[in-house]
């Protein structure tokens, strides 16, 4: 079990306090698991109180003893209910906050209303943008963990080459790959910030099923095992001469990477084969642009334009009518972090330390989907690729 170093947590909290000062916040109260893990190193139930100056206080309802063991923060204390917060803060000599930020993109309304009763005179605002801005820039510590996740997903890819066979179902293939991932340290959970953003290991499907849209804000969907979880692998048997998609998120010590590769038993049609090669060209265009630190939207616009010139206006990033308006997404503790390589994000540029997955994909209804996805991070010396499985189409 890897514990987040105290120096790493202190640095993250100080960066948040710098953003709080620019936003005029007296305090930020953090409750969501992904944010708690980032700032405390654990996800024990409670809240992290970050004042504009001084030490953050992690108030834990369940379990305080485990929180003390897992968190490197200096101040970890038990509390029974949110009514205890003023007393705890008074014990530390902190004044009553008048401007409080909370994670309003994910915080349930009823829980927010209960917290408002603690400091009814305070003004509350959304701290999500500054929290996500801090989390967007990855440290060397984080990148090293993501490299472990990339090694894990490469083992999944290698296993797929060995076990794919005609007649096995998409769900059987998914189970084989998920078993390997779990043995290699996968947590079994893909954290997403989006409301109803449910995901397990990723998407594994074949043939026409890979072109079926779903409720998820993703270019590919799949039928899934049931309408209750209508995405990903189903009981469809894998056939010859059809694309087999393994879109898999590696997960190690709380951090994620995303990788997609395409397999086939036999051969693909000329259209699908050319489409796969062209999506690699789109990825190469992004890789040439990224070191120049363009805006997020400029990458999207340029790569969309290239895909359209290559003849894929109707199939790029989804079925016609179900196309998503992004080509890449930030990744780290959650699979949908900043930056968004998406339409309209023309006021924010790539910066060193950003990690993101780039996923140009094509969808042809009734035939299947092809594409590629890799995880990258930008450094002061250029763009580095974290996922490293062989990129060529795998012929079984």
Describe the structure concisely for a colleague.
The protein contains 10 helices and 17 strands. It is α+β, with helices and mostly antiparallel strands and 396 residues long. A hairpin with a 6-residue loop joins strand 10 (326-330) and strand 11 (337-342).
Could you characterize what this model shows?
The protein is α+β, with helices and mostly antiparallel strands and 396 residues long. The protein is 33% helix and 22% strand. The protein is built from ten helices and 17 strands. Strands 4-3-2-1-5-6 form a six-stranded mixed sheet. Strand 3, helix 3 (64-70) and strand 4 form a beta-alpha-beta unit. Helix 9 packs antiparallel against helix 10. The longest helix is centred in the middle third of the chain and has 24 residues, at 140-163. It is elongated, with a radius of gyration of 22 Å. The chain starts with 5 loop residues before the first helix and ends with a strand. The mean pLDDT is 97.
């Amino acid at each position: 079990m890897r514990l987040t170093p105290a120096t790493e947590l202190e640095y993250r909290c100080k960066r948040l306090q710098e953003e709080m000062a620019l936003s005029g916040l007296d305090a930020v109260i953090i409750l969501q698991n992904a944010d708690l893990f980032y700032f405390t190193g654990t996800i024990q139930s409670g809240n992290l109180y970050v004042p504009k100056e001084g030490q953050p206080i992690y108030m834990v309802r369940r379990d305080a003893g485990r929180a003390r063991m897992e968190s490197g923060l200096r101040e970890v204390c038990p509390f029974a209910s949110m009514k205890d917060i003023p007393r705890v803060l008074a014990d530390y000599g902190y004044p009553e906050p008048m401007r409080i930020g909370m994670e309003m993109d994910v915080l349930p309304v009823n829980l927010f209303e209960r917290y408002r009763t603690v400091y009814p005179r305070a003004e509350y605002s959304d701290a999500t943008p500054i929290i996500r801005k801090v989390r967007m820039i990855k440290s060397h510590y984080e990148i090293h963990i993501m490299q472990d996740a990339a090694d894990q997903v490469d083992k999944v890819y290698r296993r797929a080459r060995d076990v794919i066979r005609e007649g096995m179902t998409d769900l059987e293939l998914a189970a084989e790959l998920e078993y390997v991932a779990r043995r290699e340290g996968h947590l079994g959970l893909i954290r997403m910030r989006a409301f109803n953003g449910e995901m397990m290991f990723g998407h594994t499907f074949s043939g026409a099923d890979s072109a079926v849209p779903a409720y998820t804000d993703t270019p590919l969907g799949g039928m899934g095992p049931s309408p209750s979880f209508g995405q990903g692998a189903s009981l469809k048997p894998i056939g010859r001469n059809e694309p087999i998609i393994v879109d898999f998120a590696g997960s190690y010590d709380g951090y994620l990477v995303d990788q997609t590769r395409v397999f086939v038993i036999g051969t693909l049609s000329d259209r699908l084969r050319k489409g796969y090669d062209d999506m690699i060209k789109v990825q190469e265009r992004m890789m040439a642009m990224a070191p120049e630190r363009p805006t997020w939207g400029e990458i999207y616009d340029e790569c969309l334009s290239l895909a359209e010139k290559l003849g894929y206006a109707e199939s790029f990033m989804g079925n016609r009518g179900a196309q998503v308006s992004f080509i890449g997404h930030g990744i780290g503790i959650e699979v949908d972090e900043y930056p968004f390589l998406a339409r309209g994000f023309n006021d924010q540029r790539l910066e060193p330390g950003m990690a993101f997955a780039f996923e140009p994909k094509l969808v042809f209804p009734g035939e299947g989907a092809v594409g590629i996805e890799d995880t990258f991070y930008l450094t002061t010396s250029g763009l580095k690729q974290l996922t490293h499985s062989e990129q060529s189409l795998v012929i079984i």
